[in-house]
Amino acid sequence: MSRADHMDVAAYALGVLDPQDTERFEEHLATCWACAAELETMVPVVGLLSGIDGEAMAALEQTHTDPALLDRTLVAVRRDRRRTRVRQLLATAAAVVVFGGLSGVAAGMLGDDSPSVPQAEPTPPVPTSAPSSGPADPNAPGVGGDKEIEGDEHRATDPGTGVQTTMWLAKKEYGTQIAVQLGRLPGPRTCRLVVWRKNATSEVVSTWSVPGNGYGTNQNPLTLQLSASTSAPLGDIEKVQVQSVDVNGVASPLVTVSDL
Length: 260
Known about the structure:
Layout: H1 3-6, H2 9-14, H3 19-29, H4 33-50, H5 54-59, H6 67-78, H7 82-109, E1 152-157, E2 164-172, E3 175-183, E4 189-197, E5 202-210, E6 224-230, E7 237-245, E8 251-257
Antiparallel strand pairs: 1-2, 2-3, 3-6, 4-5, 4-7, 7-8
Helix pairs in contact: 4-7
Domain Putative zinc-finger: 10-35
InterPro entries: Anti_sigma_zinc_sf, Znf_put
Keywords: Membrane, Metal-binding, Transcription, Transcription regulation, Transmembrane, Transmembrane helix, Zinc, Zinc-finger
């Protein structure tokens, strides 16, 4: 960069450079701290000049004042708006220098002797074991690893209603867990799952609504899958029954699993 570029600070602050020289100086200013610092000291002076009455200064033209000085002063007054742009350029130059300094520090911190940042290792997948007594029906719950079905499998089809079911009963500390799959179940209707104990008592463990197209039907081939639990121990259960409940609350059996 030529020495003339360092000599244009005052001319740039007063706004007397032509557009080509202005652009060239601004490129120089972005990388030259010396000119940036000098320009910053001139900003208050230009601000004071902006408060001078232009008409009063024009009147001085008729005096013995140097005409060249008068012209430069009036130009500075008219171009006071350039002060905002000057401050933006100073901020840009400062950011360039600060970024360069930080880059050097970061490069030193990331040298070969720096300790490596520990990286998290991927979590190993949890193994999925097949159920000990898995369903044979490919549409049954748990097929394909979606959910493990526990317990002994029991199948039944009611000869009167045609409703089919597969149930899995598993012994638990709290009682018995029951997984149910239902097909050929027409709708609409309200159903419930009832556990019958060997002491002739019963317990409703689940209720649900069947839509008009039913489950496992020609209109809806998908079967219904649900789960429930009871406090009754597995050894105390005599049968598990799916019932249909009409609007008057009267229940009728749809399908029963009794080979327990």
